[in-house]
Each structure stands twice: as C-alpha cells, then as structure tokens.
Amino acid sequence: MSNIPAELKYVESHEWLRLEADGSVTVGITAHAQELLGDIVFVELPKIGSVLAKEEQAGAVESVKAASDVYCPIAGEVLEVNGELEGAPDLANNDPYGAGWFFKIKPANASDLDGLMDAAAYAKEIGA
C-alpha cells in the first residue's frame, strides 16, 4: 500500500482527490491506473469553467496499450487544468500523485468527499 497516499480519497474508476486549503479539489489518476494503462502518450483535459456532474466524463487518457476516459469523481466547476500534461503526458506515469495531476475543481458540495474511499479501502478494491 506504499504507493497509495493516505491523505487522498479514491473512487472505483481509479481517480484520486486531494482537498486543498482553499477548498478546491485536485484530481488525478492513481498509480494503479497508470500501471494498467502503460506509457501515457496523450491526455485530454476538461475546459476551465466547465461544470461537471459526478461521474461525468472529464477527459481521456491514451497510452501505448489503451485509451481510457477520466471521470469527475464529484460534481463541481473546473477551476484549473494541468497544462504541463499536454506537452509531457508521461508526468501521469512518472508522478501520478504530484506533477501528474489532471484538474482542480470547486466542489458543488464539499461533503461529497465524505463518501469516497480512503487509502485502505482503495487498496482492498484493487487487491493491493
């Protein structure tokens, strides 16, 4: 479970969430997801200002092995996207919980985070 940060929340579709000090939520894909995908060669990010519903498609990831949708784990408005991923999509492989983040949202309801998996539950979900 060493590659599953304890301070984050997780969803079954393999996105992670980090609540920031300003109340925004940073979203990315988990190390498990990027391992399944292989070398990521393209990342599609949501538009800043988009209002997304929970579990709505927020983007996509293409790798040498597969393509996969990225979902918004909670409802909210997209505040920022990680433009670095456009020129260096491998950041999602090399640093999935740091420089490889995807987007930040302003949650429609901050309490939506309460019902998500913690690190232990996610580890059990993926059999880690």
CATH architecture: Beta Barrel
Largest sheet: 6 strands, antiparallel
Mean pLDDT: 95
Strand content: 25-35%
CATH superfamily: RNA polymerase II/Efflux pump adaptor protein, barrel-sandwich hybrid domain
Give the strand line-up of the largest sheet: 1-2-3-9-8-5
Number of strands: 9
CATH topology: OB fold (Dihydrolipoamide Acetyltransferase, E2P)
Low-pLDDT runs: none
Radius of gyration: 13 Å
Number of helices: 4
Percent of residues in helices comes to: 10-25%
Determine and state the CATH class. Mainly Beta
Which class do the helix and strand fractions yield?
alpha+beta
Shape: globular
Distance between the termini: 6 Å
> Element order, helices and strands?
EEEHEEEEEHHEH
The tally of domains stands at: 1
Model description:
By secondary structure, the chain is of the alpha+beta class. The chain has a single domain, classed as RNA polymerase II/Efflux pump adaptor protein, barrel-sandwich hybrid domain (OB fold (Dihydrolipoamide Acetyltransferase, E2P), Beta Barrel), CATH 2.40.50.100. It contains 4 helices and 9 strands; from the N terminus they run E-E-E-H-E-E-E-E-E-H-H-E-H. InterPro entries: 2-oxoA_DH_lipoyl-BS, Biotin_lipoyl, GCV_H, GCV_H/Fam206, GCV_H_sub, Single_hybrid_motif.
